[in-house]
Amino acid sequence: MPPPAGPHVPGPAGTEASLIARAQDGDVSAFERLSGAYAGRLFMLLLRLLGDRSEAEDVAQEVMLRAWQAITGFRGQSSYFTWLYRIALNEANRALEKRARRPAGVPIGADELQLPASAAHEPTRQAEISELRQALGQALAQLPPALRTAIVLRDVEGFSTQEAAEIAGVSQAAFKSRLHQARLRVRAAIGDEVLVTTGG
Amino acid sequence: MGEPGRSADHQWSQEHLSHYVEGELRPRARRRLDRHARDCADCGRGLRAMRDLLHALRGLDALAGTAAPATIFDRVRLAGPGGAASSQNA
To answer: Rounded distance, CA A53 to CA A43, Å?
Structure first.
């Protein structure tokens, strides 16, 4: 299944570079085409990090605006995709910080992160998988943002450690440390019995 | 901080299950964990649990088919062509 990191813009080689150049010249439609290729994936990242659809939609708009405002400063030192994802992470963290300053509300994440179980599974199995996914959503939602980011980028999105560390803006060593902590916490939150019975 | 009767290998193994499944352990460390997990039901199960956790997390990626909202470029369109040049410090 995973992971299309790196550029995904369809079309001939050089298309992305030309779209970037046009966007840097103020061409909104080029920017939309360029960033639109990543919009679905970026929105899913926000949804996973924020756990709330309407907030993810709001932040996604803000991410695109920030990217548009900063596009002339894009120098191609990383891929456009990595650059855009980094903006998304910053905006998601900003939203989470704002949320942390608000009074506590409903726990985030569980419902938004759930998936319908595959129809190929028997009903009992479907229920187990659905419960596991709900538990995963809750466990992810309880993680501090830096740990949640690490496990979402590496284990859910399927980025390599190098790509994920670059997007998160930390060294690979720091990223791995966060990832291992996150996995240990999620494993502890769900419990080995549930994982071994339901997983695999 | 280990519980009574739990060896240093046990504590170490529990802390390195993620490193193991990530393939980050050097051969000697990997053999150490392998040896311990063969005789320790907790760590054997922990290893399976860690693998199953990664499998389950990867399963969430099926959400990737979800489309971005149609409104995603609304603020860009509102900012217009001048938007890119006007806020360099974003």
So the answer is: 9
Structure-token pair, residue A80: 């456009």
CATH 1.10.1740.10 fits A8-102, yes or no: yes
Please judge whether A158 and B24 are an interchain contact, meaning their C-beta atoms are less than 8 angstroms apart.
no
ipTM of the complex model: 0.76
The whole-model pTM stands at 0.78
- Ranges of each domain in chain A: 8-102, 118-200
Which residues of A fall within a CB distance of 8 Å from B65? 40
B41 CA: distance to closest CA in chain A (Å): 12
In a domain, B1, yes or no: no
Tell me the residue range of the domain where B20 lies.
8-80
Cα–Cα distance between A115 and A47 in angstroms, integer? 13
The minimal CB distance from A64 to the residues B67, B75, B88 is found for: B75
CA A163 to CA A159: how far, in whole Å?
A: 6
Number of domains making up chain B: 1
**Phi, psi for residue B2 in degrees, rounded to 5:** -70, 155
Radius of gyration of chain A (CA): 18
Q: Do A22 and A30 form a contact (C-beta atoms < 8 A)?
A: yes
Of residues B48, B56, B73, nearest to A64 (C-beta): B73
A65-124 confidence digits (pLDDT tens): 999 999 999 998 889 999 999 999 999 999 988 887 665 444 444 445 544 445 555 667
